[in-house]
Amino acid sequence: MSRRLKLQLGGDTDMEERAFPNPFPDYEAAAARPRSRHLTRNELGLLFHSDGKIINNFTRRIQTKIKDLLQQMEEWLKTADPHDCSAYTGWTGISLLYLQLYRVTCDQTNLLRSLDYVKRTLRNLNGRRVTFLCGDAGPLAVGAVVYHKLKSDCESQECITKLLQLQRAIVCRDSDLPDELLQGQAGYLYALLYVSTEMGLGAVCGSAVKEVVDAIIESGKALSREEKKQYVGAAHGMAGIYYTLMQPAAKVDQETLTEMVKPSIDYTRHKRFRPGNYPSSLSNETDRPVHWCHGVPGVIHMLMQAYEVFKEEKYLKDAMERSDVIWQQGLLRKGYGICHGTAGNGYSFLSLYHLTRDKKYLYRACKFAEWCLEYGTHGCRIPDRPYSLFEGP
Ligand SMILES: [Zn+2]
């Protein structure tokens, strides 16, 4: 059947092509099951206690799986592309993973592993790309943070100096860099904000941040006058740019936020499809992936941040309503990763839970995590970089 015909037949066929039907009952149904037979929370499929603490059995399952996957990943790394230094699919991503494991376990060996991997990338900076996820800014920002944690202040400072040197190429007048998070100016800004957030606001000078913010705002103004294809989602589109500009560390002044950023967010908000997803670009009425990179799972982070910044209920209401689409269509055939996989979709529930403390979202996040524990058994497509940070499990 042609793709066009499928689209004419309606969204359901299209959805089946992209996602597995969600086999789990939603929270209300699971929580309302009769307790008369003294079923445990685990047997009821509730993977956390009434205070939100994850039940031991599930924690153990996750820990075992992490160990297992780390082994597989280390094996894969032996033959992985030595030149891919990115956080997205390369060595910086592996360094970030160990940094996160160090945060969770406080085990120093994880921090040293993180250092090993980031050192490798610092020797290999290519100077071509500049963003946190795809360019040199990623290894430099992660390097600064890892060295900082190891109290090697000299090396940490050296990374920050090099990171700031990239700025010249970004804010210069004839730069043809896009604004987006994955490949553009917002992706460089993200690196500065990451360092500020991890090491304290003084780590990167405020004027450097301001210069990039101003460049993005100016470029946004110019773009709004053009008739170019405009992406909506987190990776290439407006949601990722506005999300970054709303970060407290970006210190965008209130007037700019209210008069420039907010109307743009409201404009994007209204671009949704009826059932709740967002198009991948403003001119596209048919493409409807439910991914972090394109679709609600990325846009929802912009909505939550807008709620925190502007304190208007409509943003939170939107985020909660839109999350139903992720629950229904979020178990992706494309894989388990952050960018276009089930894990990235699970993150949106986790963020919603942190914001609202509503157990429904914790439940949904746990169920998506449970799905990911069965890694490799659903018949998903195998990505090009199967154990990388953004495409791997
Ligand atoms: Zn993606």
UniProtKB/TrEMBL annotation:
Gene Ontology terms, MF aspect:
metal ion binding
One GO cellular component term of this record is: plasma membrane
Listed binding positions for Zn(2+) are: 293, 339-340
Q: State if Cell membrane is listed as a keyword.
A: no
- SMART domains (UniProt xref): LANC_like
Entry keyword Metal-binding: yes
Pfam families documented for this protein: LANC_like
Arranged from A to Z, the UniProt key words for this protein are: Metal-binding, Zinc
- Give the GO biological process terms: carbohydrate metabolic process; peptide modification
By sequence similarity, the record places it as follows: Belongs to the LanC-like protein family.
Task: Return the protein name.
Answer: LanC-like protein 2
